[in-house]
Amino acid sequence: KTCNRILRNMEASLTARDRVGIQDFVLLDAYTSESAFLDNLRKRFHENLIYTYIGTLLVSVNPYKDLDIYSKKQMDTYMGVNFFELPPHIYALADNVFRTMQSEFNNHFILISGESGSGKTEASKKILQFYAVSCPSTKLLNNVRDRLLLSNPVLEAFGNAKTLRNDNSSRFGKYMDIQFDHQGGAVGGHILSYLLEKSRVVHQNHGERNFHIFYQLVEGGEEDLLRWLGLERNCKHYSYLVQGDCAKVSSINDKSDWKTVRKALSVIEFSESDIEHLFGIIASVLHMGNIKFDTDSRGYAALSNNQEMHWVSKLLGIPNQVLQHGLTHRKIEAKTEEVFSPFSVDHAVFARDALAKAIYGRTFNWLVSKINESLANKDSSRKTVIGLLDIYGFEVFSVNSFEQFCINYCNEKLQQLFIQLTLKSEQEEYEVEGIEWEPVPYFNNKIICDLVEEKFRGIISLLDEECLRPGEATDLTFLEKMEEKMGGHPHFVTHKLADQKTRKTLERGDFRLLHYAGEVTYCVVGFLDKNNDLLYRYGKEVMRQSKNAIIRHCFPYSEPDTKKRPETVVTQFKNSLLGLAEILMSKEPWYVRCIKPNEAKQPAHFDDVLVRHQMKYLGLMEHLRVRRAGFAYRRKYDIFLQRWYKPLCPDTWPNWKGTAAEGVQRLVKHLGYKSDEYKMGRTKIFIRHPRTLFATEDSLQVCKHQLATRIQAKYKGYRMKEDYLKQREAATKIENCWRGLLARKERERRAWAVKVIKKFIKGFMTRHQPACVDNSEYLAYVRQNYLTRLKDNLPKTVLEKDRWLTPPPIMLEVSQILKKIYIRHMVRQYVRGITPQRKAQLLLKVQTSSMFKGKKENYPFSVCRPFVDTRISPGDINIKILQIIQREHIKYSVPVVKYDRNGFRPRVRQLIFTQEAAYLTEEAKIKQRIDYSSLKGVSVSNLSDNFLILHVLCDDIKKKGDLVLQCEYLFEALTKLSVIANKQNSISVVQGSVRFDIQPGREGFVDFKSGQESMVYRAKNGHLMVVSLTVKLHPEHYITGCSPNVLCFVGIYKNKVKMKIPPMLDSDALQESQIVN
């Protein structure tokens, strides 16, 4: 048994790689294959192993569920441990960065990147939490640690929002420096923010929200605070909060988050005055969004809501008349004169929104500065730094605008930096170890960066030029200028410049860039407005009159107020990126690449197409190729020898007396490494191929079991001999005492047993007599025993009610009462669980059953396929078609293949059922309209094909005849048609062939037969021949692949839906198969 167990354990350790994948992609044999990379990532994800290395780069896949891998115990496990000694983890990366910083006394940064919803923010939090626990602790250091940790919820509240892809999406880039003293204690920090999405303040897409802080204030703010701010506890009352139509989100608890933010502001040392002014600004933005403008008699803007203006004036501390004048007038300076020009309503709305964005954006910058003051380190001695860069990931939406252009430009720059730093670190390691460096081929995305940022010719320069030039500059003139300047660039294309095939995928206002991660099409509409982001100078002057201390700080008198236009948004962003690049180039890089496995945020679901796309734009294959360009594996000599492989060589086991390098040389010679498989560096061994390392690892596993067996044998022999001598001596002493004790206990036990048995027999004999002293205990036992057995054998469903446990005579009446109560309980439970949607689905299935059950061969396969409202979304139907038939209300639509009446050529079409008629459409054309009144009937065969023939009343030669269609969702479409058009009795299931009218006086035929292979062709007799596979039905076909909710229906009787329950359903399935009223 011991030998078998050892062999099983050994086999498990050798095959573990096949089951859970390789924990370092560098050791992947097929390292150039995307499929092998994806397969390894998928294996680990399904085993809840969400972290994988590419050398020192960490790949993290969002599990969308809680994993027990972030406890204090886990942190302790990874502290001070060699990077590759334990399974991959974000704590391992954080610990390695920290120890490298301490040992080398230099600065580092961790770049966390990935798509929205991939877990970047959570990864940043985990790293901060690890440093909070692992760093030395004093009262001063704990204070700094708490401020670092609590700065996160504050910045998330003011800078994060719900988007379509992520309920807590960072709408700004964040770089945080954590400063450490020489002992490793966190003594300070500094935060830089990039490109806050200010446009979200005044506009949100459908399904998205404004920044969290607005909802937290309205939902969680104290009653006194809301009364002082003039707010109501209802987000729907504020124009800036309802545009996305999702103020409430199930995954967000605004009230709880509000408490966290209030606590965090206190810990970060915001004064009560600062907090009061801060929330006053937030409330003023909400009130400002509710300010409306009317047109006065002269056609200019006039305020129509003085109550909202009153609150804005009060909260910002600006006189009401001054504020009203600032929102409805613009100051024009002409030499020595100043003229106030009134706004139109459109200009007034623009000015209001621009002011709201400016107030929020500058307040956010003030907030970051205030947090930095709290985190500032007062000690001037030299500190080492670890930076955390949580930056937006590459974004590709259905419509990409200015924000996506900036974000993707940022990712291009970071990818360029990433490859440069990776190549640099690899080359430096080879040079230090004395290994010859071989140049690595890779895609240099400098051509794309130059396309965007090149001086005078890049997109940014052209965009700024259009924003600043006089005259009527529009988004389209900007597009025309790009076409003129960049017409021949291989990474730039527009509708005008594209070939005929590409032009079909581009609108006239689009341009497409071929990024390193793939093609992205940008809509040029709004580029100029978003890039300008102008706030009228008079608006600034009005803000400077504020009594709110934060507003005065954000709009200082010292701010230059020249007539020169300020820098555009994209230029500011470009300069910020250049500054960030300089910061990062001065530090040692580490990387965390975050991946989201699916769009639906579902645990255990891995979408190969989505993950492969992220692999590409995160540059993972590029990084792997760089790491594998030379040697796949490298380790220091002492670690390779002492911690791992010295048992494999008799000369190095158990103790090696020489240097570690000599020991490794002796070891690899014994293992038979070839000269081209490894190189000996100054301090490390370099192994070229993963297979060499895996062969060594497998040999080590075998050797471990052999060593363990020998050690066990020696140790067990020694312990067994010692234990035997002690036990023999003890057994002699105990035996005498124990035998006497057992004899006495046995006598007492037998006397008790005789008494109990007598009483039980007497009770059994008198069990049918009225209750008395002799049988009362026996009858109580009978009752208890029956109820106990009944509890464990209760029917699982109503259909098992006949399996009720047979009661003893004394419990007969009680058993009947319990049975009735329990059955009523089960029926009530089931009925309460039935939803209106499910009942409607069941009724449709009943309709289908009445038409096709027992008539058409492939009907049983349709039972488990739930019906949907429509198979073609409104977005996939041509807009012209929608405009034509919108008054008739589309009830259902489905893709079909239409066969020509002459020649039977197949055509892909869309079949649309409205309230009044059925339409057969092709793109923007309606090929045929069939009024339900002219629909004579529908014919389908009794075989397993998906053909249907719509017979149309054709009394005019100009009218089109019957339709021959093929539909994948045949049963669903016909059921919908029968309900919508009330044609239940017009659907016929026929055998052999179907005649149809081509036009009055001309007829055609469709022949149906079964065969070994499905095919559709025109027969020699001119008929359309449809050959379908013969279907052999088994009972399990009714439920194969179906949940217990999907059953086979037999009809409706007395307003009750009755369902046929297949006999092989288990008890869990039967529990749902009740009769539904």
From TrEMBL:
It is found in: Cytoplasm, Cell cortex. Pfam families: Myosin_head, Myosin_TH1. Residues 577-599 are annotated as: Actin-binding. One of its GO terms (molecular function) is ATP binding. One of its GO terms (biological process) is actin filament-based movement. It comes from the Eukaryota. PROSITE patterns: IQ, MYOSIN_MOTOR, TH1. Its main location: cytoplasm. One of its GO terms (cellular component) is microvillus. Transmembrane segments: none annotated. Keywords: Actin-binding, ATP-binding, Motor protein, Myosin, Nucleotide-binding, Repeat. The keyword Nucleotide-binding applies. Residues 21-701 form the Myosin motor domain. ATP binds at residues 114-121. InterPro entries: IQ_motif_EF-hand-BS, Kinesin_motor_dom_sf, Myosin_head_motor_dom-like, Myosin_TH1, MYSc_Myo1, P-loop_NTPase. The keyword ATP-binding applies. Signal peptide: none annotated. Residues 856-1030 form the TH1 domain. Belongs to the TRAFAC class myosin-kinesin ATPase superfamily. Myosin family. This is Unconventional myosin-Ih-like. It comes from Salarias fasciatus.
